[in-house]
Amino acid sequence: MTEFLQTIFIGWGLPESLAIGLTILLQIALILGVLFAAVAYLTLAERKVIGYMQVRVGPNRVGPRGLLQPIADALKLMFKEIIIPAGADKKLFLIAPVLAMAPSLAAWAVLPVADGWVLADINAGLLYVLAITSMGVYGVIVAGWASNSKYAFLGAMRSAAQIVSYEIAMGFALVGVLMAAGSLNFGQIVASQQGEYGLFSWFWLPLLPLFVIYFVSGVAETNRAPFDVAEGESEIVAGFHVEYSGMAFAVFFLGEYANMILISALAALLFLGGWLSPFQGWTDSWLGQSSIIWMLIKTSFFLFLYLWFRATFPRYRYDQIMRLGWKVFIPITIVWIVVVGGLVMGEIGPWFAAA
Amino acid sequence: MLENYLPILIFIVVGVIVGGAMMAFGFILGPHRPDTAKLSPYECGFEAFEDSRMKFDVRFYLVAILFIIFDLEIAFLFPWAIVLKDIGLFGFSAMMLFLGILVIGFIYEWKKGALQWE
To answer: How many CB pairs under 8 A join A and B?
Structure first.
């Protein structure tokens, strides 16, 4: 697609650098368009799924079966007043939502959705994602500091400590994947999960503890239930974004949901073989072919888990969260890294057999 | 090689612009009717007792410091993990020694109660 667009733009008589730039911008617009639509309908899906889990219908008034609800929400938020509280640091207050959202969008630059369908196919893909997503914590802490509200401040402190704690467990889990795959490039990580045993060739099986820890840390990282003490409606009302309203609040919200989709897509790529078919090697029909559909199914599965967790588990206490992160997850991941190291060194098959 | 990173740079800039544009839209489209009660920081209807940027638990600092140590460790592990298949037993045992030293420090801080929240 890249070359096709570039030849069109050059055919219009544009210089080459401009053609390249325009092509990139168009691709980014495509990614962001799909992402925003996904975020909008994830909010609807969340309300619907949790609704049905609590034996009610969820939103069903706007449009057929409530399908236009996200659009109505977006319009409503757009026409609400943005309140800047007295005593707030005005500049930081307005920068914070952008700081929280921009990284969760920018991370999508390196994320492939199918073989070769990626904007920037760089060698250090996973490293870039890890680096850029850890920028998100600045948005939270700046928002809490700038708001000049005790609730916001407490929420930001809690949230920052929680995010950095779980980032360690998450980082260790990713190291396990890297050892198994031997590459930071997403395409190669997925390719190394290819095998004749279908879904049993994927990394979730040899790296099972890391897989579970990765996803639970991902839930904690995005401040979602049951680890949502940063918001904690019943104790610190809404945490770091209590003073935000209108679009400023919507930008935070968008970042959070984009992050959820990002974590789910990463889990699918790193542990569940991305676009590989679970029946690969078992059948030669279309079921055994790898395609973007598998990637979408896997990502949706993890997103559903997010909603399921929220409808099922009560909120953890803060000391329990920190205990789980530091005293359970970090020791397990360190032990399993050593185990994976042994497996890779011993070339234990089928996952780590000598190529 | 380096031109692969150009889309990323553009994407980051676009991400910031999109965020800024959304906020700008909110300002343009939304009403502006500030009053004292609306602008006062939210505190359940009380007048605020003290500055909201108050003293906080020193443990948050401790978590931040421990985070730096472990995050650096991960930064060291990343390149090692990628070339693990090429560096053989020597590279493997060197990193295990390094991990062992880190684990001793981890046990020490655990016993000291640095990870204890009550």
So the answer is: 214
